Amino acid sequence: MRKFQLLVFVLFLGVQSVSASNDWGKKGHRTTGEIAQKHLSKKAERKINALLNGHTLAFVSNHGDDIKSDQAYRSYSPWHYVNYPFDSSYEAHPKSEKGDLITGIATCVAVLKDEKASKEDKIFHLKMLVHFVGDLHQPLHVGIADDKGGNDFQVRWFNDGTNLHSVWDTKMIEDYGMSYTELAASADPLSSYQLAEVEKGTVIDWMNESRTLCKEIYANAEIGDKLGYRYMYDYTSVFRSQLQKGGIRLAVLLNDIFG
Fold first, then answer.
1. Residue 78 in contact with residue 100, Cβ under 8 Å?
2. pLDDT tens figures, 13-57
3. pLDDT tens digit sequence for 219-250
4. Angle (nearest 5°) at CA 61 between 12 and 119
5. What does UniProt give as the signal peptide span (predicted)?
6. What domains can be seen in the chain, in order of their start residue?
């Protein structure tokens, strides 16, 4: 009986791992899109409105996940993350032939800047860029392949079996209890200097920043840990900051692309 119960528990956690691959979750991605919308230049906003038929960045922010069930878009799945060992670097580690989060962002930017690209291609890659920049700021999407970016790192969230990736995708954000509009509206006020600090750097710099957070997250958790109130206390400000940085930096890219 004990073996049967253990098997059921392991299978349950396995289901949690498979289902916990939606990056920031819908609320997190919409928050990033909503924040980005507020930092767009007027010119960029007009051009984006024309491409998206008036829809907001928050509205299209989950398109990258919404298309995952369509086999026609399976080739884009590796673009949601970048994994390499903690003792290596992105530059030194062999790259996936299928691409990764960094090449995915670069491709989207290139298509949007290409005057010869069709409107349909620009719309698609704009939606994907909004999603990928959100992914870039979810620390477990800049993780390690050994446990699939924390999807195989089994923990408990209060009394429920889950994994470390899911905790950062959805658990903390959902338990914080705010809508995406509330999260965006309550983002910390930044001085001009602080805003400039967030805006500066490259996509690689932003990835390395998320990578540093990822290492810290792994250092502060062990397989089987029960995470809850203390974890929320330690990391709520971190995930809120990452959502805000993602939105501001998405706007930086879009303002550069659309002027």
1. yes
2. 443 333 334 457 899 999 999 999 999 999 999 999 999 999 999
3. 999 999 999 999 999 999 999 999 999 999 99
4. 130
5. 1-20
6. 20-258 (1.10.575.10)
